[in-house]
Predict the structure.
Amino acid sequence: MRLRISPGASRFTDRVAELSGENLRACYQCGECSSGCPLASEMDLLPSTIIRLVQLGQEEVLDSKTIWVCSSCLTCAVRCPQQIDVAKVMEALRQLNLRKNIDRIRIEEIPLDERRRLPQIAMISSFRKQTA
Amino acid sequence: MKNAFFPGCSLKTPARGFEETAISCARVLDLELIEIPRWNCCGTVYSLTTDDLMHHLAPIRNLIRAQKMAASGAVDDQRLVTLCSMCYNTLKRSSFLVKENPDKLKVINDFMDEEESYSAKVEVVHFLQLMREIGFRQLESKVKKPLRNLRVSPYYGCMLLRPRELAIDDPEDPKVLEDLLAALGAHVVDNPLKVRCCGSYLTANRKQTVADLAHDILTHAVSEGADALAVSCPLCAFNLDARQAEVKNLHPSFEFVPIFYFTQLMALAFGLNPEQFGFDTHTVDPRKLLKEKGLLDGE
C-alpha cells in the first residue's frame, strides 16, 4: 500500500483520537500489538498498520476487515510500551462505521440452529459490538 | 459474612451449575452471597468510546442496587461479588469510569432520575478474589474429596486480567486459579495459552475463527497433560466446550476434553451434592472422566 498523508488528514486522525481517547501520535511502530494479537492471522491489516494509517489520516482503514476481527481481548492494550489502548482505537473505527447506521451482523444471517445454540452472552455481546 | 451478589444472565441459564456450586461452596466457607434485587443485564461488553455514556447506565443501575443493599444493612460491606468474567469486567470498568469522572457520573445520575443517585462507593470484586482473601489454606481445610489424579489446566481468558487496572492477578502470569486448584488437591497443568483470547463474541458470526482459537488453547493444554480445563467465563465455556464440535470438524483427530467452571471443581472437592453441578448443560460431559478418576459415583 502506498503511503501518503491524505488531505484533511488531521481531521480524521483527531476524530479517532477523540473517540478512542488515545494519543495515537505516541506510536513508534514497534509492532508489539501485532505480534501478540491472537487474531492477527485473520486480519487484512495488522493492528500496528492500522495505527500508522490513522496517523496519516487514511480513512480507508474504515473498510478494513481487521476492525471487525478484533475481539477486544486487550492483549495489545496491556503490552503497548506507549500505553496506547489499541482496542479503543479499533472500537472508535467500528463506531465511525456503525454510526452511519450500517449493521455488520444481522440476525437473519445466523442459521436457526445456531440461534438456538448460541447463549445470550454471545448474542448480546456480538450485537452490541457490531450493530448501531 | 454476607455479600451482595450479581449473577448475570448466563448463570440463570446455561451456566446455572456455575452459580449453584459457587453459592454452595461460599456457604461452606461461611460466606452468604445474596442476589441483588431487580438486577439487569450488565451489557456484556464495556463501551470503549469516550462519548458513549448510554451503555454505562445498565452497569451503574446494578451498582445502585448494591449500594441500596449495603445501606439497608442486608449485607456486611459495599462490595458486589461477581462470577461471570464479562460481568466482572463490565461492572468494574463502569465503576472506575464514574469514580474517576464525577462529571460523567453527574450526567448519568441526572439522566436516571427515577433512581437514587449512585455515590461511586461500591467495589466490584470477583469470587476468585474472595477465595484468595479467605485463604487457600482455609479452602484446603474444607476439602473432603481431594481431586487427586485429576490433571486440570487453568484458563483465564481476557476479562479477569485486562485491562491492567482491574486485573485480579498478574495479567501475563496469573496464579490465583493455580493456587485454588492446588488447594483442592488437583494436579495443576500449566498452559502457555491460559491468557489467550478464545474469540469471545466472534462466535456468533465467525465460528470457524473461534474453533481455530479453541483448538489451539485446548490442544496446548492436552499436550501438557491436562484431563480438563477450568474456566470462569460462560462465553469462554461456550467457545471451549460447545465449539469442540466445530473443532472436531476442522481437525478429525481432535479428542474431546471436558471444561469445568472452577466452582464445580470446588464443589466436587468439598463433597457437595452432584445434583447441583449442572453437568447436563455441558456439551462434553465431564462425568465419564470424573468416574474414571474415582471422583464421582455411578457406573
